[in-house]
Amino acid sequence: MDRLPAPSRDDDLSDLAIALAVAERKGVVSGYEASEEERQAILQLYNDYDACGGLGGGVDFSDLDGDLLKTIKSGFGKTYVGGALNHIRDRLKASVTRCPICAIGAAKELDHYLAKTGFEVFAIYVRNLVPICHDCNNSKGTHGTDVPHERFIHAYFDDLPDEHLAVELSLNDGGLVTNFGVADLGPENAEMEQRIGFQIGRLKLSERWSDEVIIYMSAHETALEDAFEAEGADGVSAFLEKQAEKEERRFGKSSWRPVLLRALSIDEDFCDEGFRTVL
Ligand SMILES: [Zn+2]
Prior knowledge:
This protein is mainly alpha-helical. The chain has 2 domains: 12-150, no CATH class; 165-278, no CATH class. The chain is built from 10 helices and 6 strands. The strands form 3 sheets. The chain has a two-stranded antiparallel sheet with strand order 1-2. A two-stranded antiparallel sheet has the order 3-4. A two-stranded antiparallel sheet has the order 5-6. It is elongated, with a radius of gyration of 23 Å. The protein binds zinc ion (ZN). Zinc ion (ZN) binds at residues 99, 101-102, 104-105, 132-133, 135-136.
Protein backbone atom coordinates (compact mmCIF):
# COMPACT_ATOMS: atom_id res chain seq x y z
CA MET A 1 0.00 0.00 0.00
CA ASP A 2 1.27 3.33 -1.04
CA ARG A 3 0.93 6.89 0.16
CA LEU A 4 -0.01 9.42 -2.54
CA PRO A 5 0.49 13.18 -2.40
CA ALA A 6 -2.82 14.90 -1.65
CA PRO A 7 -4.14 16.56 -4.82
CA SER A 8 -4.08 20.35 -5.13
CA ARG A 9 -7.22 22.17 -4.00
CA ASP A 10 -6.74 25.14 -6.32
CA ASP A 11 -9.87 24.34 -8.31
CA ASP A 12 -12.24 23.63 -5.40
CA LEU A 13 -14.49 26.61 -6.08
CA SER A 14 -14.54 26.35 -9.86
CA ASP A 15 -15.21 22.59 -9.68
CA LEU A 16 -18.06 23.25 -7.29
CA ALA A 17 -19.48 25.90 -9.61
CA ILE A 18 -19.43 23.42 -12.50
CA ALA A 19 -21.10 20.71 -10.40
CA LEU A 20 -23.86 23.10 -9.33
CA ALA A 21 -24.32 24.90 -12.67
CA VAL A 22 -27.99 25.57 -13.40
CA ALA A 23 -29.09 24.31 -16.81
CA GLU A 24 -32.30 23.57 -18.62
CA ARG A 25 -32.69 20.52 -20.82
CA LYS A 26 -35.96 19.49 -22.45
CA GLY A 27 -37.83 21.68 -20.00
CA VAL A 28 -36.17 20.14 -16.97
CA VAL A 29 -34.07 22.47 -14.85
CA SER A 30 -31.09 20.98 -13.06
CA GLY A 31 -28.44 22.51 -10.83
CA TYR A 32 -28.54 24.57 -7.69
CA GLU A 33 -28.12 28.29 -7.13
CA ALA A 34 -25.80 28.23 -4.12
CA SER A 35 -25.34 31.31 -1.98
CA GLU A 36 -21.89 32.61 -1.08
CA GLU A 37 -22.55 31.39 2.46
CA GLU A 38 -23.30 27.88 1.24
CA ARG A 39 -20.18 27.78 -0.92
CA GLN A 40 -18.05 28.89 2.01
CA ALA A 41 -19.70 26.28 4.25
CA ILE A 42 -18.71 23.58 1.77
CA LEU A 43 -15.11 24.82 1.61
CA GLN A 44 -15.04 24.76 5.40
CA LEU A 45 -16.21 21.14 5.34
CA TYR A 46 -13.39 20.35 2.92
CA ASN A 47 -11.00 21.91 5.46
CA ASP A 48 -12.56 19.80 8.21
CA TYR A 49 -12.12 16.71 6.04
CA ASP A 50 -8.41 17.48 5.66
CA ALA A 51 -8.03 18.18 9.36
CA CYS A 52 -9.38 14.77 10.35
CA GLY A 53 -7.92 12.86 7.39
CA GLY A 54 -11.23 11.76 5.93
CA LEU A 55 -12.67 10.47 9.18
CA GLY A 56 -16.39 10.56 8.43
CA GLY A 57 -17.49 11.19 11.99
CA GLY A 58 -15.32 14.29 12.14
CA VAL A 59 -17.55 16.34 9.86
CA ASP A 60 -21.08 17.58 10.28
CA PHE A 61 -22.98 18.78 7.23
CA SER A 62 -26.50 18.36 8.55
CA ASP A 63 -27.15 22.11 8.09
CA LEU A 64 -26.76 22.00 4.32
CA ASP A 65 -29.80 22.04 2.05
CA GLY A 66 -30.89 18.59 0.82
CA ASP A 67 -31.16 19.75 -2.81
CA LEU A 68 -27.68 21.24 -2.64
CA LEU A 69 -26.28 17.88 -1.45
CA LYS A 70 -28.21 15.98 -4.11
CA THR A 71 -26.82 18.28 -6.80
CA ILE A 72 -23.22 17.87 -5.63
CA LYS A 73 -23.69 14.11 -5.60
CA SER A 74 -25.06 14.01 -9.14
CA GLY A 75 -22.24 16.38 -10.17
CA PHE A 76 -19.89 13.41 -9.88
CA GLY A 77 -21.45 12.16 -13.13
CA LYS A 78 -19.75 15.10 -14.86
CA THR A 79 -16.31 13.59 -14.14
CA TYR A 80 -16.86 10.89 -16.77
CA VAL A 81 -15.61 11.25 -20.34
CA GLY A 82 -17.28 14.19 -22.07
CA GLY A 83 -18.40 15.73 -18.78
CA ALA A 84 -17.52 19.24 -17.65
CA LEU A 85 -15.55 17.86 -14.67
CA ASN A 86 -13.64 15.23 -16.63
CA HIS A 87 -10.39 17.09 -15.85
CA ILE A 88 -10.70 15.85 -12.23
CA ARG A 89 -10.64 12.22 -13.34
CA ASP A 90 -7.83 12.81 -15.86
CA ARG A 91 -5.64 14.67 -13.40
CA LEU A 92 -6.05 12.17 -10.55
CA LYS A 93 -5.47 9.17 -12.80
CA ALA A 94 -2.39 10.77 -14.35
CA SER A 95 -0.83 11.11 -10.90
CA VAL A 96 -0.43 7.33 -10.39
CA THR A 97 0.85 4.47 -12.48
CA ARG A 98 -0.49 1.51 -10.50
CA CYS A 99 -3.29 1.08 -8.02
CA PRO A 100 -1.95 2.44 -4.69
CA ILE A 101 -3.67 -0.36 -2.75
CA CYS A 102 -2.66 -3.55 -4.59
CA ALA A 103 0.04 -2.34 -7.03
CA ILE A 104 -1.27 -4.95 -9.48
CA GLY A 105 -3.74 -3.25 -11.78
CA ALA A 106 -3.82 0.18 -13.37
CA ALA A 107 -5.66 2.84 -11.36
CA LYS A 108 -8.50 3.33 -13.82
CA GLU A 109 -11.34 4.17 -11.44
CA LEU A 110 -12.02 6.80 -8.82
CA ASP A 111 -12.95 5.55 -5.39
CA HIS A 112 -14.94 7.75 -3.05
CA TYR A 113 -13.02 7.24 0.19
CA LEU A 114 -16.19 8.38 1.97
CA ALA A 115 -19.09 7.06 -0.06
CA LYS A 116 -21.06 9.56 -2.11
CA THR A 117 -24.25 8.25 -0.56
CA GLY A 118 -24.11 9.42 3.01
CA PHE A 119 -21.27 11.86 2.38
CA GLU A 120 -22.76 13.69 -0.60
CA VAL A 121 -20.92 16.90 0.22
CA PHE A 122 -17.61 15.20 -0.65
CA ALA A 123 -18.82 13.59 -3.88
CA ILE A 124 -16.57 15.74 -6.09
CA TYR A 125 -13.98 16.76 -3.49
CA VAL A 126 -10.62 15.83 -5.04
CA ARG A 127 -9.11 14.65 -1.76
CA ASN A 128 -12.00 12.23 -1.29
CA LEU A 129 -11.37 10.71 -4.71
CA VAL A 130 -8.61 8.12 -4.91
CA PRO A 131 -7.56 6.52 -8.20
CA ILE A 132 -7.56 2.73 -7.69
CA CYS A 133 -8.02 -0.38 -9.83
CA HIS A 134 -11.32 -2.00 -10.70
CA ASP A 135 -10.76 -5.07 -8.49
CA CYS A 136 -9.98 -3.02 -5.38
CA ASN A 137 -12.85 -0.64 -6.06
CA ASN A 138 -15.25 -3.50 -6.58
CA SER A 139 -14.26 -5.28 -3.35
CA LYS A 140 -14.22 -2.09 -1.29
CA GLY A 141 -17.69 -1.11 -2.47
CA THR A 142 -19.17 1.61 -0.33
CA HIS A 143 -17.44 0.39 2.80
CA GLY A 144 -17.18 3.31 5.16
CA THR A 145 -17.08 3.06 8.89
CA ASP A 146 -16.03 4.82 12.02
CA VAL A 147 -15.10 1.51 13.69
CA PRO A 148 -11.44 2.48 14.24
CA HIS A 149 -9.80 -0.79 13.28
CA GLU A 150 -11.97 -1.24 10.18
CA ARG A 151 -11.17 2.09 8.54
CA PHE A 152 -9.57 1.75 5.14
CA ILE A 153 -6.14 3.25 4.68
CA HIS A 154 -6.50 6.72 3.14
CA ALA A 155 -3.86 7.05 0.42
CA TYR A 156 -3.67 10.84 0.88
CA PHE A 157 -3.77 11.09 4.67
CA ASP A 158 -2.60 7.95 6.45
CA ASP A 159 1.05 7.58 7.36
CA LEU A 160 1.94 3.96 6.86
CA PRO A 161 4.88 2.43 8.71
CA ASP A 162 7.67 1.66 6.22
CA GLU A 163 7.65 -2.12 6.39
CA HIS A 164 4.04 -3.02 7.04
CA LEU A 165 3.71 -6.11 4.89
CA ALA A 166 5.04 -9.63 5.51
CA VAL A 167 4.85 -12.91 3.63
CA GLU A 168 5.08 -16.54 4.70
CA LEU A 169 6.49 -18.92 2.13
CA SER A 170 6.40 -22.65 1.76
CA LEU A 171 7.80 -24.82 -0.98
CA ASN A 172 5.98 -28.07 -1.21
CA ASP A 173 5.12 -30.62 -3.88
CA GLY A 174 6.89 -28.52 -6.46
CA GLY A 175 4.78 -25.45 -5.74
CA LEU A 176 5.42 -22.14 -4.04
CA VAL A 177 2.69 -21.20 -1.56
CA THR A 178 2.59 -17.60 -0.36
CA ASN A 179 0.53 -16.05 2.37
CA PHE A 180 0.71 -12.26 2.68
CA GLY A 181 -0.30 -10.43 5.81
CA VAL A 182 0.39 -7.40 7.94
CA ALA A 183 3.78 -7.27 9.66
CA ASP A 184 4.12 -6.94 13.42
CA LEU A 185 4.11 -3.16 13.81
CA GLY A 186 4.56 -3.00 17.57
CA PRO A 187 2.18 -1.80 20.29
CA GLU A 188 2.50 1.85 19.23
CA ASN A 189 0.96 0.98 15.85
CA ALA A 190 -1.61 -1.52 17.08
CA GLU A 191 -4.59 0.22 15.46
CA MET A 192 -2.78 0.73 12.16
CA GLU A 193 -1.80 -2.93 12.18
CA GLN A 194 -5.45 -3.92 12.60
CA ARG A 195 -6.56 -1.56 9.83
CA ILE A 196 -3.99 -2.91 7.36
CA GLY A 197 -4.91 -6.49 8.30
CA PHE A 198 -8.60 -5.69 7.85
CA GLN A 199 -7.98 -4.17 4.41
CA ILE A 200 -5.86 -7.14 3.26
CA GLY A 201 -8.72 -9.45 4.23
CA ARG A 202 -11.55 -7.36 2.84
CA LEU A 203 -9.87 -6.86 -0.54
CA LYS A 204 -8.57 -10.46 -0.65
CA LEU A 205 -5.12 -9.01 -1.26
CA SER A 206 -3.16 -12.07 -0.14
CA GLU A 207 -5.05 -14.26 -2.63
CA ARG A 208 -4.68 -11.68 -5.41
CA TRP A 209 -0.96 -11.16 -4.79
CA SER A 210 -0.41 -14.91 -4.56
CA ASP A 211 -2.06 -15.31 -7.97
CA GLU A 212 0.55 -12.92 -9.39
CA VAL A 213 3.60 -14.53 -7.77
CA ILE A 214 4.42 -17.28 -10.29
CA ILE A 215 3.78 -15.05 -13.32
CA TYR A 216 5.98 -12.37 -11.80
CA MET A 217 8.78 -14.74 -10.73
CA SER A 218 8.74 -16.55 -14.07
CA ALA A 219 9.79 -13.29 -15.70
CA HIS A 220 13.04 -13.60 -13.69
CA GLU A 221 13.67 -17.24 -14.60
CA THR A 222 16.64 -16.64 -16.90
CA ALA A 223 18.29 -14.24 -14.46
CA LEU A 224 17.84 -16.78 -11.65
CA GLU A 225 19.41 -19.52 -13.80
CA ASP A 226 22.36 -17.27 -14.68
CA ALA A 227 22.88 -16.31 -11.05
CA PHE A 228 22.83 -19.96 -9.99
CA GLU A 229 25.23 -21.02 -12.75
CA ALA A 230 27.67 -18.30 -11.72
CA GLU A 231 27.56 -18.43 -7.93
CA GLY A 232 25.13 -21.09 -6.81
CA ALA A 233 22.56 -20.41 -4.10
CA ASP A 234 24.45 -17.32 -2.90
CA GLY A 235 24.22 -15.86 -6.38
CA VAL A 236 20.47 -16.43 -6.49
CA SER A 237 20.08 -14.82 -3.08
CA ALA A 238 22.15 -11.78 -4.11
CA PHE A 239 20.17 -11.38 -7.33
CA LEU A 240 16.84 -11.46 -5.45
CA GLU A 241 18.11 -8.90 -2.95
CA LYS A 242 19.26 -6.58 -5.74
CA GLN A 243 15.95 -6.93 -7.59
CA ALA A 244 14.10 -6.18 -4.33
CA GLU A 245 15.96 -2.87 -4.06
CA LYS A 246 14.88 -1.93 -7.57
CA GLU A 247 11.25 -2.78 -6.94
CA GLU A 248 11.40 -0.92 -3.65
CA ARG A 249 12.42 2.25 -5.43
CA ARG A 250 9.58 1.81 -7.89
CA PHE A 251 6.78 0.64 -5.63
CA GLY A 252 7.85 1.40 -2.04
CA LYS A 253 9.21 -0.78 0.75
CA SER A 254 5.97 -2.50 1.52
CA SER A 255 4.83 -3.40 -1.92
CA TRP A 256 4.25 -7.12 -2.36
CA ARG A 257 7.05 -7.45 -4.92
CA PRO A 258 10.04 -6.39 -2.77
CA VAL A 259 8.51 -8.14 0.25
CA LEU A 260 8.29 -11.38 -1.76
CA LEU A 261 11.79 -11.03 -3.23
CA ARG A 262 13.38 -10.43 0.16
CA ALA A 263 11.61 -13.42 1.68
CA LEU A 264 12.76 -15.60 -1.23
CA SER A 265 16.33 -14.29 -0.94
CA ILE A 266 16.63 -15.81 2.55
CA ASP A 267 14.79 -19.03 1.69
CA GLU A 268 17.56 -21.60 1.35
CA ASP A 269 15.42 -24.15 -0.46
CA PHE A 270 14.27 -21.68 -3.07
CA CYS A 271 17.76 -20.29 -3.70
CA ASP A 272 19.35 -23.73 -3.81
CA GLU A 273 17.66 -24.88 -7.02
CA GLY A 274 14.17 -24.84 -5.49
CA PHE A 275 13.32 -22.08 -7.95
CA ARG A 276 13.73 -24.61 -10.78
CA THR A 277 10.91 -26.79 -9.53
CA VAL A 278 8.40 -24.03 -8.80
CA LEU A 279 8.87 -21.86 -11.91
ZN1 LIG B 1 -5.96 -2.37 -6.71
